[in-house]
Every structure is written in structure tokens, then in C-alpha cells.
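=== Structure Prediction Worksheet ===
Name of assembly: unnamed complex
Input type: mixed (protein and possibly other molecules)
Chain count: two
Listed entries:
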Amino acid sequence: MSAIAPLAAPSTAYDAERVRRDFPILEQMVNGRPLVYLDSAASGQRPLPVLRAVERYETHCHSNVHRGVHALSQAATEAFEGARERVRRFINAGSSREIVFVRGTTEAINLVAQSFGRARLGRGDEILITALEHHANIVPWQMLCEQVGCTLKVAPIDRRGELECDRLLELLSPRTRLVAVAHVSNALGTVLPVKRIVDAAHALGAAVLIDGAQAIPHSRIDVRELGCDFYAFSGHKLYGPTGIGVLYGREALLAAMPPWQGGGDMIRTVSFEKTTYNDLPWKFEAGTPNISGAVGLAAAMDYVESLGVEAIAAHEQRMLKLASDEVSRIPGIEIIGTAAHKASVLSFTMQGCHPHDLGTILDAQGVAIRTGHHCAMPVMTFFDIPATARASFGCYNTEGDVEALIAALGKAREVFS
Amino acid sequence: MDLKELYRDVILDHNRRPRNFGPLVPSDAHAEGHNPLCGDRLTVWLRMSGDRIEDIRFEGKGCAISTASASMMTEAVKGKDKAAVMALYGTVHALLTRQDAVPDASLGKLAALSGVREFPARVKCASLCWHTLGAALERSVDPVSTE
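=== Predicted Assembly ===
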């Protein structure tokens, strides 16, 4: 996948210190030390333009959407549908009818499983995933398999955390109806060759869903260039609010899919004899949506594009390389996930010091990392470890943050020497 | 937050060299404990004499707090009857969660866990072994148990 390749340095230097000042939450002390936030893969922080856009909406525009003739309802509808168009442009979808607002990546995948999956799959059919998926791209398919009798197949990874793509291609067959893969592994950072997977799956008539939760903040996503059938992501990984996410679906597929949840907004007419459904995308948006969340997400997309997605990615790659080089020098540390092509996620273990102890020791020094199985228990099982410590880098992280991480790890070695 | 309060020498020692570690054969009861948040797992085996713990061993994978807590627990409860074990657990639980708890002389080494209460995210690490012991004790006295 070319979209996340380390890119050439931007013409003007990326100023992470200046970017950092856009994020008021980062200007605080934690446990008596300046906060060093290295957990953006779990959730990114929000810049002032996002906070202000949400505040402006809440203080001037809020009402319900698609309902009233009054001014506020029209303002809310314009803001919400404007956000949809903003998302369309951000991922270069052909039509805003292909942009369904959901709570997040998890809900997007469940929607596809319960609508597309239940309508199209049955006994003898297969769903193909990979061994490095997040639970959100495993469990909805297991539930579907129980419901309709289809089978889940899993393509393996190797010791570096690379997908064994040839094995995945061997597992593809005319029985494969859907391939659901992460664009970027949340636990290891591995970038998957999604374009190659899409082309191979389509050659056999299988649809492809890409879990883009970890890719969206690090790369320019062009769903038409990828050619995927579904692309799912969450707003909060892209410096937007929580509780808002997007399911992109190819219009022809979405149009043929039955609604998932029933209720207001997703109908055209309701009677006790017969109910007719709304057009795309509202057919999949039952109930009052997260309007301010959509507004915040649109502002986050403006913000990210103002910095330049490629410039952010290049900066994060520098942070990842710096941190990986420094961390590898610390005795007893093993980096888990050493794929050739990674997003800015650094998972590791320290001999003699459990990841949770590491997390506590780092927190005491103001350094926030994630520890645990990262909702990817099969990945932990594969590497025969209970958990990892994971530092992840976003647009606002600086070399100073990397230095603080390394110093804090040194402290952990001291405690557990 | 003082890390030395949490990672006292006795805790680091029990983490490095857990006592009574490994399966107990034969045993009268065992139970498995799991902390889904952090993936810690441990098993506690018991050999009973009436309602007195004659022998106890544990095995598991977890952080220093969970491993040391389990190791010290096995030393503390060996030879005690069920009522005394439950009373001790009550004292330990208060030590882990209540800011005003003063380490009781009955705690012995277990008093080293008093630093945990400053780290609320870690209380479950220290209490997992006690929950697991409680489950194993229930099984040991349950006449319909197949253990």
C-alpha cells in the first residue's frame, strides 16, 4: 500500500512544537511531571479548532436534523450534511450517499456483518480475516457465523508481525464471500497490503471490508483508488470526537443491503401494514445521530489537511524510527512487531518487568502509554505473551516526548534490576 | 506517587522468586482467576484438612503486584482455617482500598501491599489471588463439587 509509505520530507519543516500548542490537554502536569502522551493509537487528542467547532455548533446551531422548518433545525441539518460531504472529500468517495455516520469502527463493522452478512452469507460460505485483527474485526464475524452457519478463516502472520499475504491468497476461494482486514494493525503497527488483497478478492467475487481505524490518522485514504467495498474508521483516532465514525460503502452494495436498525430517520413512510425505507445513506442511520460529533469530525479533517496528511505521516515516521532505535538499545527490551512497513506504533516487552508494571512506572513519570492485549488477544497468543507495552505517536509528539519515554524506561529498569 | 511505596523490596523479591509456585499434586480443590483487563491469569491449588488449609500452591502469569501478592498470600494462609483466611482477606482488602487503613500486625509481610491503594488501577492485580483462593475454598467444602 503506497498510501502509508514513508514519504519525502515536506518542503517546509514540520513544527511539532507548534502543532502541540493546538492541543490544550497536553499542557498539563501528570503526577508532577509534564504530560507525555504516547497513546494516540487508543485515542487521539483534540485540537482547538475541533473544540471550537463543536462549541460553536452547540452554542449556535443545535436542534434535531432532517425534522423541522425552523432556522435551527435547518442549521443543524446543514452542519450535519456538510460534515458528510467533508468526509466524502477526505476519503475521495464518489458520492455522499456512500458515507454512513456510525458510532465508530466497531459499529461500522457490526453494521456490515448484520446487514450485508446476514442477507448474503449462508452455510458453506466463508469470511476471511487475518491473525492480527482487533477484536472488533473478529467478534462480529463470529456472531454472524453462529447466526447463518458460515465459516471464519484466518490468514496467518509471521514472527515479524507481517501478514503472510501468499497464505491469505491461498485461503481465498470461490466460497469466500467477504474479506475483512485491518489496514494497519493496532497492536503491532504493521501496514497491510490492502490494495493487493482487494484485487485478489475481487477477482474471485468476494467483497472486501477494510478496518481503517489505525490507518486514517497516518495516511491519505482514497477509497476509489483502493477499490474496497467497505472502509470503516472512527473520528477519535483522527483527532475528532468520540462516538462518531464512518462506514464508507460502495453505493450499489449499500443500496441492495437491508436496513440494520429500525426507527426514525431511516424510513420514508410508516404504516402498520407496510413501511418503506429512506434513501441512502439515511436508511442506515436510525434515530437522532451524533450531530456535534459529525461537526467535530469535519473540523478534525480540516485540521489534519491543514497540517498535511503526508507531512504528519513523515513526522510520525521520524518519531517511530527515533524511538525504535533508542528503545532497542535498552537491555532486555524486545520490540514486538518489526514489519518492514509500519505505522507509528511501537509495541515492546521488557524482560523481568511485566507491561503493567511498566505502565505504572511510566505513568508516575507523566508518560502515558497503553499496556495490555490491545483488544488483539490472538496476536498476544501468537507471540506467547500476555501483554505488551505500546507507545504510539501522533501529530503532536516531539523528540522531547521520545527522550522522556527512554528516560522513563531507564527508571523501570532501575526498579526491576 | 512514590514508586518505592508500590514496589517495595519484599514485593520485588516475591515477584522474582515466587514462593509455593507450581501445581500442587494431589490437591482437593483448585480455581482459576482471570483479570480480563490486563490478561493476568493464575491458578490456586489447595490441599485441605477439614476446613484448614494444609497446603497451597499457585501458578500464573502476571505483573509484579499480582505475582507477589499471590506468593505472600500462600505463605500467609497455609495452616489457617477458612474463617481465619476470610478474616485475613477482609484486612487485606481494607489495606488495598481504604486510605485510612493502618497495617494490622496480623498482616505480617502482606503489609507491604499498602502502597497499592495509591494506584487504583492496580488494586485488582493485588486482589485477584484472594478472589481465586475464595473460589477454591468454596469448591473444597462443596459436597457436590466434582473437584
